[in-house]
Design brief:
By secondary structure, this protein is α/β, with parallel strands linked by helices. 44% of the residues lie in helices and 16% in strands. The protein has one domain. α4 links the parallel β3 and β4. This is DUF374 domain-containing protein.
């Protein structure tokens, strides 16, 4: 017998154990099943009211895709809006883990990471750029993964610049919702059968020589204005805790809208 064989067998067993997908407990399986069932029902029953939707114009007139830019608080509602093959940047948190099977069931492509400056975030951003360059849309919760609420990370600007696609700001506000008031983002879950107010901002183009911090600041203001129009109470609460400065006439104009 070759004396190296026992060692080889042990090494092979170790490799198999490392490559083996961890088994989920029954509690975890039930949790995932419950989340999947809830969001499937929500996605099939919500009524979406859309304002200023220019997605077809982008795709058909410019022959390009785009990246949705939304608040972390609205990412659950975005499940109702997602199109097949949309690349979704999903955090590596427990909440993100729950979203992965749900996104896959909708035909979306979950990409794990964040829009921040971490190593994992940089890798995920590279994958998102390739995904968009291959002709698919993407979606990013731009103030994730840990906030502050409404503070846009510049990853979405870098994605738009590198992939040569516009940013489409969007807020999604359910008429009836569960609100996680103690969470940093005040996450919102739409009730099934409710109405979802989906408001798009004008697309933001990012040139090769644009300053990414400036683009992020413009996007911050646009999202704040959209939320102020669609959900004044949440918007004002967020602005009280942030440094986002809206134009002097933004409050009056958006409330009138």
């Amino acid at each position: 017998m070759n004396p190296s064989q026992p060692h080889d067998r042990a090494a092979a067993k170790t490799t198999r154990r490392r490559n083996r997908t961890p088994k989920l407990s029954w509690a975890k399986r039930l949790e995932r099943l419950g989340v999947l069932g809830y969001f499937t029902l929500m996605r099939r029953t919500v009524r979406i009211r859309v304002t200023n939707d220019r997605r077809d114009e982008i795709c058909h007139q410019s022959d390009r895709q785009f990246v949705y830019a939304l608040l972390h608080a609205h990412q659950a509602a975005a499940i109702a809006l997602s199109d097949p093959n949309t690349g979704a940047l999903v955090s590596r948190s427990r909440d993100g883990e729950l979203l992965v099977p749900l996104l896959k069931s909708c035909g979306c492509v979950p990409i794990r990471g964040s829009s921040g400056g971490s190593k994992g975030g940089a890798t995920a951003l590279t994958q998102m750029i390739r995904h968009c360059q291959d002709g698919h849309p993407a979606v990013i919760a731009v103030d994730g993964p840990k906030g502050p609420r409404g503070k846009v990370q510049k990853g979405v600007a870098k994605l738009a610049q590198k992939a040569d696609i516009p940013i489409v700001p969007v807020v999604l506000v359910p008429k009836r919702r569960f609100l996680f008031a103690k969470a940093w983002d005040r996450m919102q879950l739409p009730w099934p059968f409710t109405q979802l107010d989906c408001r798009f901002g004008d697309p933001i183009s990012v040139a090769a020589d644009d300053d990414l911090d400036d683009v992020a600041s413009r996007l911050e203001v646009e999202l704040a204005k959209l939320e102020l129009a669609a959900d004044p109470q949440e918007a004002e609460r967020s602005q009280e805790k942030s440094s986002i400065e809206l134009p002097a006439d933004a409050t009056g104009l958006n409330r009138a809208a």
